[in-house]
Amino acid sequence: MSKIVILGGGESGVGAALLAKAKGHEVFLSDKGVLEESYKEILQKNEIPFEEGQHNEEWILDADEVIKSPGIPDKVELIKKLKSLKKPIISEIEFAYRYTSAKIVAITGSNGKTTTTLLTYHLLKQAGLKVGLAGNIGESFAKQVIEDNFDYYVLELSSFQLDNCYDFKADVAILLNITPDHLDRYNYVFQNYIDSKFRILQNMTVADDFIFYQESNTLVEELNKKQFPVNYLPVSLVKEVSEGAFLKDGFLHVNYKGSDLTIALENLPLKGSHNAINAMSAMLASKSLGIDNEAIKRGLTTFQNAEHRLEPVADIKGVKYINDSKATNVDSVFYALGSFDDPIILIMGGVDKGNDYRQIEDLVREKVKALICMGKDNHKLIHFFENIVPLIFDVDSIEKAVQLSSDLSESGDVVLLSPACASFDLFKNYEDRGHQFKSNVLKLITD
Fold first, then answer.
1. pTM, whole model, 2 decimals?
2. Annotated binding residues for ATP, as ranges?
């Protein structure tokens, strides 16, 4: 029996603690913050010792193995001490993987991974497979593995989760794109972030399928540098591919081992070219696991996208209000702007993560009639866009942003919350930001 310490008491940490206890390990969970009451109750009910508001180093440094929350960066002193003592530090994903023989579909990318994960899961489930949804979304992978009732798992994986995976292996991997993000966690070295994303390919073999978007320049440059023993399945918006998927003349073409599937772009439940990439990736993954064309088509007709991702909120006097709060980097905003042809009032801002706004400069100039910068410190946004957008405003609350957007808009406009930034200056998280946006928009109807 080994002594396992869990650092972080959120969904992944509590799930890992439950799995460790179920497998007979000595378990201790430590969180420097305050645990949610629901998680405390779960730990108490299962007689798992824990602490909150501190880290007892004597206990922690004595661990045989540490399972670290993806939210804890390596530069934290406690992590440095553990590394100096050569203590194994792994992620909940790595730990859970040890206890399942299910096939794994692993999905990552700077943008689009939540939509692609939800769609892939939906297609597999609607086709009748016993499939679980986990990773960066849904219930903890480790918690689900305790019973291990599934033959397949679809996992959304962030770079932070991949960083502490070593023996983990995907049977099908999807890498959607790589654009600068979370550079504050990677010493502001883009290559470190790239290397992290490519960990999704580790341990894969020629029997495994690798689905990737081949117009993601950074991704393809990295593939040109290294060879991986996998079956390459490119997804393209501009070029026909014999094996993989591509968009041509308004139709998605998905080709896998001699089986072709064609679907009109207009029949997708998701709009925008970025969602064509997501849909083709999910469809390829489904075909890789043996789902037939008719089942895929049926599944597509019943899919609904995630909350806070280009989510329609209301149409008020001909003005469409769109909640894209999950757009926490510039690349996401690029795709969001490309999804609309109407004049846009854009709400951006928050905690800048080293953003380069040049990627959206032309789209903003072409489509945005007014920019509302929402945050505690908007000087970078204002400085970059002040000569690009006709109207630019500086606000420090969601209430002011929504009211101002209402005052500025006219019938035919789109009010788009697509922040490009983290939310922690004014909100708990991007979900909180999205919910507050929606509630303030709905107040416009009653006011």
1. 0.78
2. 109-115
